[in-house]
Design goal:
Elements: E1 2-11, E2 14-24, E3 29-33, H1 40-47, E4 55-60, E5 63-64, H2 70-76, E6 78-81, H3 93-99, H4 109-119, H5 121-125, H6 136-148, E7 154-158, H7 166-181, E8 185-189, H8 193-199, E9 202-207, E10 210-216, H9 217-221, H10 224-230
Parallel strand pairs: 3-8, 3-9, 6-7, 7-8
Antiparallel strand pairs: 1-2, 1-4, 4-5, 9-10
């Protein structure tokens, strides 16, 4: 589904991504783990068209999307749910969700909105409420619901558990699994490596802009190296 080959990305003179190559197969949850500043979010921003790689290629569903505008990438079904939720604080919950479908021309937007409300019942209760007045967990649900309104084939999730209480973290990860089981492929960036590896099929470990390890998520979770570096072992 997604094939990334040898991408290099710079922030000015800073070489942020150094020859990154990775694959995501249809139906998978793939996670990127690593320390803060390792380049995980930069990878997602590059895939969604917010940053342009200087070299390399990004193939999505057989098409080269390297250099495409972000809205064109969304139209193809690659949708980014960003770090920090980024909801439109002065708009209602429902207006935020409707914005997720702004590129769609089909007649099923209303049925998809109803499906989001069934998945996130608290959003239905607060649909007329300003998004900026929601709790952190509710804002994360809104950000995910807004991304789902774009009908993603591949959903990029950046730090969905950030700042949430442990019970909410479990709920969010349960929802990610449910979304995946219903047919959406997921590429997940997550600081909580234990949770990410527990639901992922495969994982890539990023250090200072490079992939240093990759493989089956359960196998990586049980390795001494990963335990010591990321899982508190």
């Amino acid at each position: 589904m997604l094939a990334v080959k040898d991408i290099n990305v710079y922030y000015g003179a800073i070489h942020a991504l150094k020859g990154i190559s990775l694959d995501v197969n249809q139906g998978e949850i793939v996670t990127l783990i690593g320390a803060n500043g390792a380049g995980k979010s930069t990878i997602l921003k590059t895939l969604s068209g917010l940053l342009k790689p200087t070299t390399g290629s990004v193939q999505f569903l057989g098409d080269n999307i390297h250099g495409k505008a972000a809205q064109d990438i969304v139209k193809r079904g690659l949708v980014h749910c960003p770090e920090g939720r980024r909801v439109f604080a002065n708009m209602s919950v429902e207006e935020n969700l409707e914005l997720g479908a702004y590129l769609r021309k089909d007649k099923e937007v209303k049925s998809d909105l109803d499906a989001v409300y069934r998945r996130f019942e608290r959003l239905l209760e607060r649909r007329k409420q300003l998004a900026g007045t929601l709790s952190g967990g509710e804002q994360q649900m809104l950000a995910m619901g807004r991304a789902l309104m774009a009908r993603p084939k591949l959903l990029l999730l950046d730090e969905p558990s950030m700042g949430l209480a442990p019970l909410l973290v479990k709920e969010i990860f349960s929802i990610i699994q449910e979304i995946n089981q219903q047919g959406t492929t997921v590429l997940l960036v997550e600081q909580n490596a234990n949770m990410a590896l527990s639901i992922a099929h495969r994982a890539y470990v990023i250090e200072t802009g490079k992939i240093v390890l990759s493989g089956d998520a359960k196998e990586l979770a049980s390795s001494d190296e990963i335990q010591k570096a990321y899982l508190g072992g």
